């Protein structure tokens, strides 16, 4: 079932299109990773969905409601974990979560239960009385998450939740995303870290310059782009004759000399034809020192789709 739908959505700042006729569908129950370099339009997209910005054109639907026409219904369904921390330093961790619960209309015993549940979920139960000013960056972010999820929203949106935090908190946050999803929430997660998106997403959307340039599971995306496994061969040395023979092999569709004694190849049906390459090496008295298979990843996909690296501006 389609849970989130963007139909021809446009958002401009002056003349610049931050979101450029975006069409996107997300099914209920997904962990949807929205991946793209800095400035691709990810934050603008999720701010539009959360109703924090108004679109210049197009329509956004959430759970059958229009974000523009039914803002109360749509906002109730969303827990937004923004990129900038939205917590109050003068309140304790517990008071912060309570405050957000009150904003969502929770009262009395239910409010108390949900506050404790959210603190426990964020691994902050022992720090409930403390003010976030003393917290590490990772703890502050976990508190931010506790505040956003305490009303058990159907849709949780996290904007770059792991930027600049320690590995332990990072793992905690990634594990929280999985748990929240297992408990029934659909999750939209923006990041420019492809490893993270690969690791936790059930579906991935790749954004560039305000547009969705690809959409699917990791495997679908890699297949669509026609990306293939590469072989890295490291030898003790190389000769021009050997290079000529390898490059000229009928099944070698990509060839690059990496360093003096390193070759990168795409070899079709490599199981059957690798022996030909090894034979060329031994014929020229060259020794193979290392052979690595490199699986295609989202980084190579992004490069293929846009001609640029995801990490250009990291
Ligand atoms: N308030 C604003 N005023 C003017 N331009 C803006 C504003 N907010 C965003 N933009 C521009 O819109 C484009 C998309 O920005 P956005 O923040 O959505 O990208 P992003 O993919 O989330 O990147 P980041 O990870 O850096 O936040 C960028 O070129 C940005 O400079």
Helix content bin: 25-40%
SSE order: EEEHEEHEHHHEHEHEEHEHEEHEH
Percentage of residues in DSSP E strands: 25-35%
Radius of gyration: 24 Å
Ligands, deduplicated: adenosine-5'-triphosphate
Count of distinct strands: 14
Estimate the global geometry from the Cα principal axes: elongated
SS class: alpha/beta
Strand order of the largest sheet: 6-7-8-3-9-10
Instruction: Outline the low-pLDDT stretches.
Output: none
Number of DSSP helical runs: 11
The biggest sheet amounts to: 6 strands, mixed
The pLDDT mean sits at 91
Distance between the termini: 35 Å
GO molecular function: ATP binding
Keywords: ATP-binding, Nucleotide-binding
Domain ABC transporter: 4-234
Protein name: ABC transporter ATP-binding protein
Give a description of the structure.
With 314 residues, the protein is of the alpha/beta class. It has 11 helices and 14 strands. It has helices at 42-49, 71-76, 93-103, 108-121, 137-149, 167-182, 194-200, 218-224, 240-248, 270-283, 298-306, and strands at 2-13, 16-27, 31-35, 57-62, 65-66, 78-81, 155-159, 186-191, 203-208, 211-216, 230-235, 252-259, 262-267, 288-294. It has a 6-stranded mixed beta sheet with strand order 6-7-8-3-9-10, sandwiched between helices. A 4-stranded antiparallel beta sheet has the order 2-1-4-5. Strands 12-13-11-14 form a 4-stranded antiparallel beta sheet, with helices on one face. The protein is elongated and about 80 Å long. The protein starts with a strand and ends in an 8-residue tail after the last helix. The model has no long low-confidence stretch (mean pLDDT 91). The structure holds adenosine-5'-triphosphate. The site of adenosine-5'-triphosphate has 12 residues, from helix 1.
């Amino acid at each position: 079932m389609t849970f989130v739908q963007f139909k021809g959505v446009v958002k401009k700042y002056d003349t610049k299109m931050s979101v450029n006729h975006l069409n996107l569908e997300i099914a209920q129950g997904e962990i949807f990773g929205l991946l793209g370099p800095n400035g691709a339009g990810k934050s603008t997209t999720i701010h539009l969905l959360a109703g924090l910005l108004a679109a210049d054109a197009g329509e956004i639907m959430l759970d059958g409601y229009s974000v523009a026409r039914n803002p109360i219904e749509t906002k109730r369904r969303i827990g937004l974990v923004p990129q900038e921390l939205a917590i109050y330093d003068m309140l304790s961790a517990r008071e912060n979560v309570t405050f957000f619960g009150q904003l969502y209309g929770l009262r009395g015993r239910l409010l108390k239960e949900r506050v404790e549940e959210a603190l426990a979920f964020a691994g902050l139960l022992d720090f409930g009385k403390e003010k976030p000013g003393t917290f590490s960056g990772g703890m502050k972010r976990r508190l931010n998450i506790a505040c956003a999820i305490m009303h058990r929203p159907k849709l949780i949106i996290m904007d770059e939740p792991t930027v600049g935090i320690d590995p332990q908190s990072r793992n905690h946050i990634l594990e929280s995303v999985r748990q929240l999803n297992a408990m029934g929430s659909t999750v939209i997660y923006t990041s420019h870290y492809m490893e993270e998106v690969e690791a936790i997403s059930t579906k991935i959307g790749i954004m560039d310059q305000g547009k969705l340039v690809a959409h699917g599971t990791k495997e679908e995306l890699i297949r669509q782009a026609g990306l293939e496994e590469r072989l890295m061969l490291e030898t003790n040395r190389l000769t021009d004759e050997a290079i000529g023979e390898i490059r000229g092999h009928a099944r070698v569709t990509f060839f690059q000399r990496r360093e003096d004694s390193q070759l990168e190849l795409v070899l079709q049906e490599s199981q059957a034809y690798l022996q030909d390459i090894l034979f060329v090496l031994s014929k020229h008295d060259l020794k193979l020192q290392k052979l690595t298979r490199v699986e295609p990843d989202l980084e190579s996909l992004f490069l293929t789709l846009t001609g640029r690296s995801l990490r250009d501006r990291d």
